[in-house]
Amino acid sequence: MAKDNLNKVFLSASIPYPDRDKKFYDTADIVSIRDSVRALATVVIPKAHLIWGGHPSITPLIRFVMDRMNIDLKKHITLYQSQFFEEYFPPDNFAFENIVLTEKRNNRDESLALMRSKLINENDFKVGIFIGGMEGINDEYVMFKEKHPNALILPIASTGAAAKILYENQQQGFDIRLKNDYAYMALFRDLLHDYI
Residue 104, exposed/middle/buried by CB under 10 A (0-12, 13-18, 19+)? Predict the structure, then answer.
């Protein structure tokens, strides 16, 4: 795991599957999920440390951005991944030097819970960003908020799915732009200006 003095940004994101809970898939805006992840990586990676739990729909997007940057990125990205999914790792995983593999447990749920716990508890995050997603985003949100109560939390509601539900269910008055602003590059530059 990289040790550095860069501010750490947590990303919780995925593209919902059609065969899972319909409440996530039916509201998901797949183009917005992809666009927002790419914009976030573009804004965060050069200035801060982006950390996420590997999801096969998200890791290739971050690699796409990383491959187009001409800077040493080792201190700027860390991918957490559970060994439970090792046989399904996308080739993109191996493009990242900082990979934290968490041990396989009895089943998928226990393995994911361990990975999420380590990811959220081992890092001092300044920001948590939630994009698209399914039930895992809810789990990560609860854990993140408890461990990092002073961090900036941004559920990108315009991407739909779990992020939209998080935005709508919270009473803390999130910025309306999270719901209706699709100019993600400018949005992240503005909202993260004081955090990265």
Answer: middle
Measured between alpha carbons, how far is 106 from 155 in angstroms, rounded to an integer?
31
State how many domains the chain has.
Answer: 1
Nearest to 164 by CA among 179, 174, 180: 179
Whether residue 2 lies inside any domain: the answer is no
Residue 59 has a pLDDT of: 85
CATH code: domain of residue 186: 3.40.50.450
What is the per-residue pLDDT for 1?
42
Q: Which of 14-23, 35-44, 88-97 has the lowest mean pLDDT?
A: 88-97
Cβ partners under 8 Å of residue 86, min gap 6? 101, 104
Alpha carbon of residue 62 to chain centroid: 10
